[in-house]
Structures are given as structure tokens and as C-alpha cells.
Structure prediction request, 284 residues.
Amino acid sequence: MTSLRDRMAEHGFESNIDYGYHVRCLLSQPGGAVPALNVEGDSGRRKTAFANALAAALEYPQSIYHDFTQVNDPPPKVIPPPSRDEEGRQEPPIPAFERAISDACAHSEGEKTMLILDQLQAADFREHLRLYRFLVDAEWHFRDAVFAANPNNLVVVLIAEEPLYHSLQKVGFSIWVPRASVGEADYAPEDFDLGPEAAPMMARLGDLFRALGVQPTPTEFRRILFDIEHNVRTREDLTHSLYGWTEGIDYRQLTSAPVQQQIEDLMPDLLAYVGVEHVEIRSA
Prediction:
């Protein structure tokens, strides 16, 4: 059976971190609270990509997404006739946030559902309080209605660019999604069906990525290896391929004099691997 990391990569989120353990911790806790996943990390939409890929990788039939920074509510799939109260007055439409919660509750009655609440820092603080009560009680109150959630089927994912309200933070399981691929172990030639002759070059690349503070994912590294074999012939070429394929590289650091010298130093191993004789042309 493929790992959660591999399944998430199939749905657009590739990482050197397998979040399977984190998900097991989230879903195995006893009690009647709604499981909540606090997705923290560097700013950017990588956390959003993580949440959507997680829902797809877990094969949840229902995935509901709400972004608090969206100015205009998206139109509903079905436009119901205007509702009226007991005295015949037309009631205002249900806001998108309320609709997302009530839909998640309804779907959770019969099937696995993931509710993704993005950019939560833009929500009114009162909504943080309401969310806390919802996660604890598995009930959502809106106007005169009460919507009940099934905690065994519903997972709520909270994404914010600022720290969550303390009680809301404590009721969920927190994970860190970095802006770049991270990892400790170097790749070996056999990871990419290469022979031992690739080892010196790959060792030098490992040193370079440690200096840059990132490690490419397998897909990214495979693309870099393809460029090395077919396109890279100069230090500048390798610089462009490294930046072009590796998410999270700091361009200023990559083009700094120390890193450029490190790239220059590894070029003989790279050219020896691809069988290209290095000819240095000096001006007269």
C-alpha cells in the first residue's frame, strides 16, 4: 500500500515529510470532540495545497472549503427560493461561512467529510469562539437552527497566517508545513536507478543543498538530474535548473558568491559524470 506522502503527491502536494503519523494521532484520540488539524507553517498557499491534497489522499467523499479573505461569497450550486419567517418577512441569505459549516455537518451524518477553513486570521474573533464551541460540542448554532456534526466522520482543518485563539489552538492537533522541501538524508544513485559513477556528483549536490537549507523532493531531484544529463554544461546552467525546479530556494542566497563558488567546484564531477570534457576558455 502506498504511503500517505505518495498519495498526497499524486494530488499535487509533494514533500519529503510523510504526515501519516500526524494523521493517526489526530484521528485516534478518544472522546466526542470534532477532530481539528491546525496547519501551521511559513506564509503562503502551500498550507492550502496540503489541506486539499490531504482530503483527496484520504479519499474523503466530501471536501468543503471556505476562505475568510474571499470578498464575495461564491454562488451556491442550487439557488433556493427566498425564505420567509413566520410573519412573512424575507430572511437574509445564509453567509458562505455558515453555509460551509452547516453543509459539513449534514454531509458528516453519512460520509467522511473534511472542512477546510482557510485564512482564519481574517475572521472576526467571535467566529473563533464559535468554532471552539463547535469542535468541543459537535453542534453549530445559527439563528434559530442547530446543526449537529458526526465527530466520527468530520475533520476540520484550520489554516491561519497568525497564531490561533488559544483555546482553539489547544483543542486541535498542530502540524508544521514548511515553505520548502526539507530533509536530512542524501539521495543515493540507486534511488534514481543510476550507477555508482553518479555517487561523487550526488554527494557534492547533497553538500550544496545543505548549504541552501533545502532538499528537493524526489520529483524535483529527478528533473534536476535530467537537466544535468541533457542540458547543464555551465555553472550558470546548473544555477537556473536548481532554482527552476526546487521549491523554496532563496534566489539571493543561490546567486551569492560563496554558493556560486560551491557550484563551480562541483562542476568537474558533474561534467565527468555526463562525459563532457571541461574546457576553460580564458581571455588573452
Notes: The chain has eleven helices and seven strands. The longest strand covers residues 36-41. The first helix runs from residue 4 to 10. The chain has two domains: 4-177, 189-274.
